[in-house]
Amino acid sequence: MLCRVCIQVTWKRFDEVHPLTIGLYPFAPDTRIGVDYNQRMNEWSLIIQDIRPADQGVYQCQISTKNDHESYNIMLNVRSNIPLIYYYYRLQCFDAVGWAAGRASGL
């Protein structure tokens, strides 16, 4: 008998109601927004291409399972006085063995 925990990950800006992504599908009208899922590591990443100062703020990763719902806030800081060398930014949310955390990384 096989039992799997199915999760649904939603990304949104903390101060907005509408989601940016649900699962692997982008819902934002902004075409710079995307999502990536690394099944081996169970990592969900919000991808923001051509990062801009207006992208700065708190993003929220919402993890939903059949029995639980948790949210993790990740602060994205964009320094407007420094030339932007990142082509895109990756905000990551992890869910493994009952723990989750968020982090931001420029690539």
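(ticket continues) Second input and output from the same batch:
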Amino acid sequence: MVGLLSMAGLMLNLRVQEVCDQLPLSDAIKQALLYRRGNLGKVLKLVVAFEQAALGTASDRTLIRLNHYYLDSRSWASAVLTGLQES
């Protein structure tokens, strides 16, 4: 959820603050989106660093796990999009 919402501003041509103001989000999600704070914020920072290939100090084990999670998320997104197209 946080990952999707982190890009909502770009998709809607709004600032992230505006997106947060318009949706009934928990404080933890708002903190993650706006300030990269809390556990969700840490995960979001990690994902962004992964996407930008900026994990120079990460262990091989961490990179393997992140690659696995990334491929799982791509499969999930493809399945969801396929379901939407068939509707």
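Agent notes: The chain has two domains: 1-54, 56-87. The helical segments are 2-6, 8-12, 16-22, 27-35, 38-51, 60-86. Closing as not reproducible unless the customer responds.
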